[in-house]
Design goal:
The protein has 318 residues and is mainly alpha-helical. The chain has one domain. The chain is built from 14 helices and no strands. Helix 3 packs antiparallel against helix 9, helix 5 crosses helix 8 and helix 12 runs antiparallel to helix 13.
Amino acid sequence: MTSAASPSSTHGTWTGIACGAAAGALWGLVFLAPELAHGFTPLQLTVGRFLAYGLFAAALVLPRWRRLAAQLGRQDWATLLRLALLGNTLYYVLLANAVQRGGIAMTSLVIGFLPVAVTVIGSRAQGAVPLRRLLPSLLFGVAGIGCIGWQSLGAGGAASPLGLLCAVGALAAWTAYAVGNARALARLPQVSVQDWNLATGVATGAQALLLLPFALLLDDRAHAGADWLRLAGVAVGVALAASIVGNALWNRMSRLLPLTMVGQMILFETLFALLYGFAWERRGPTPAELLAMACVAASVLSCVHAHRPAPSRYAAAA
């Protein structure tokens, strides 16, 4: 890989990892949203979050809309709509439903295979690091997922078939998004990562607007005014932190790192979601959770090591 052979590329690799970690820290906040806005349906949470995302994105992209419109063709907008559906609207609806119907334990175990799925797909790209060199990183990732799943499943509770189906659907949707988004960014170097994020926000906001009537009509429960204000506050906060800033950091990382590393960066979301969960529950991690976090760190570090230049390059330089 030429991206790992020069000091500037090495600096770019660590910058990409930092962006991936920061995106994971912000995306981990999404898992607190259902707790903060309890009593609302998954569709209402999804529509509220992405309506706010769309409004913020439209306001921020408006001053340079003409330039962005000239850079994107009809096919590019079709790609944006598809990615918005896969990575935002559909993913979050399926994820929230999986948690409600199957529990956090089953959902986290299934969704936790995102790094493995994306990395395996990325290893098939031309010039990618061979899968055998990524095997230690994948094994650490699977071990970490297993620790989290074993710890969660030990709490009891049976997952419904529909909940499992939703979790698998969410896994498939976000895997397709991560791969498609990285390839789209590589195909459109003239579009900045921030403009791509804002364009994605506009597409996602349009989808949320279409779903708004269903979100209101399909909920027959009564909500007080204070409840709606709480939902609005959570939606705006998550839209700014996770969708505007977090997605921009993720897009920056996607341009700096190969797809085989992009997959491993998803582990940061799991790690930070755990940390936020500990803070919310006011407790420390169990031994299994500590082991899971150690496995996450080992997975990322071994993935970085796999992308280092071959030792022969150093020997020749010496």
